[in-house]
Specification:
about 280 residues, alpha/beta, 6-stranded mixed sheet, 3-stranded antiparallel sheet, globular, binds pimeloyl-AMP, binds magnesium ion
Length: about 280
């Protein structure tokens, strides 16, 4: 008699963490995170290599790839809902981004600290950080142990099927490229860790879209959180110290594997009043 074994589900297949880091003269240029099956690794390495080598910030002189079989449990989850707010200019975008942070009960001093530091280069030597700063939601104090490097979130990605629905959503709102996908994966993981809210915009001079992410309002994009040509960018994670085991929090961000299996649509594109109204309902 032929024995029939149940097929292993997709989730039980071995998955790998693939990480890329590129630098020039010791300074971080770009990085990427993937969680994927073995058969997709080599093609993805070629893609990430091409991205790193042609990076607009400067050609790297070192590119590192790390490939690691994931042995620990993987968390599977749906993404934060994606909304895009229509704004007129940088001032307008910033005003509304601040409003979302206030709705999340982030204090004024903490908000000012984040905007000021990201705008001028958040590391003590006024350069962009490789990772994120962590800001106390009440006092505005910076909590990360290394304020040059910041905290790097690692081991997160959007699964193949979810990526298909993300592509449809992106087409609908008229965006292309890898940034939305990578930022959405990161923001979802950061919010799952217990972060109250995150503020981010890119360090790439020609990418002006930024976002505020939170459990309550989702991943809220603003078309121009900085001026075109501005080389500064970064990330701030706002944290309520009393609610969190700090070491456990950092450990979750750096080492826990998280794969997004569903992309949640929000309200895009949306005018501000409409966005607020939908969340009040
Ligand atoms: N962990 C922590 N911080 C990071 C990480 C990470 N894995 N990767 C980047 N950062 C920090 C670092 O300070 C960078 O300088 C800064 O964030 C910006 O990184 O249209 O492209 O990769 O919805 O330039 C957001 C909007 C795009 C996307 C963000 O960031 C959209 C972006 P970048
Ligand atoms: Mg960048």
């Amino acid at each position: 008699m032929v024995k029939v074994y149940p097929k292993r589900s997709r989730r039980e297949r071995s998955l790998y963490s693939l990480r890329m880091r590129a630098s020039r003269d010791g300074f971080h240029v770009s990085g990427a995170e993937r969680i994927l099956s073995k058969d997709r690794i080599s093609a993805e390495i070629v893609d990430l290599f091409n991205r790193a080598i042609g990076h607009e910030i400067g050609n790297p002189d070192e590119i590192h790839f790390t490939i690691e079989k994931i042995k620990d449990e993987i968390l599977y989850t749906a993404s934060l809902p994606i909304s895009t707010i229509l704004t007129e200019c940088v001032e307008d975008s910033r005003k509304k981004a601040i409003q979302v942070l206030i709705l999340n009960r982030v204090s004024e001093v903490a908000i000012s600290r984040a905007f000021e530091d990201i705008s001028k280069g958040a590391s003590p030597d006024r350069k962009n950080m490789r990772g994120a700063m962590i800001i106390d939601i009440e006092t505005g104090e910076r909590l990360e142990s290394d304020s040059y490097r910041g905290v790097r979130v690692s081991r997160m990605d959007i699964g193949e099927e979810a990526e298909e629905s993300l592509k449809i959503e992106m087409k609908r709102i008229g965006v292309e490229g890898f940034r939305v996908k990578e930022a959405l994966a990161l923001a979802t993981k950061v919010s799952m860790a217990g972060t109250v809210a995150e503020l981010c915009w890119s360090d790439n001079p020609d990418y002006t879209v930024g976002y505020v992410a939170s459990k309550r309002y989702g991943y809220v994009r603003f078309p121009n959180l900085k001026k075109e040509g501005d080389i500064n960018g970064g990330r701030a994670f706002f944290l309520r110290r009393s609610d969190i085991d700090f070491n456990g929090y950092i450990n979750f961000l750096q080492t826990k594997s998280l794969l997004i299996t569903k992309v949640t649509p929000g309200f895009s594109p949306c005018i501000w009043e409409e966005f607020l109204k939908r969340y009040e309902d």
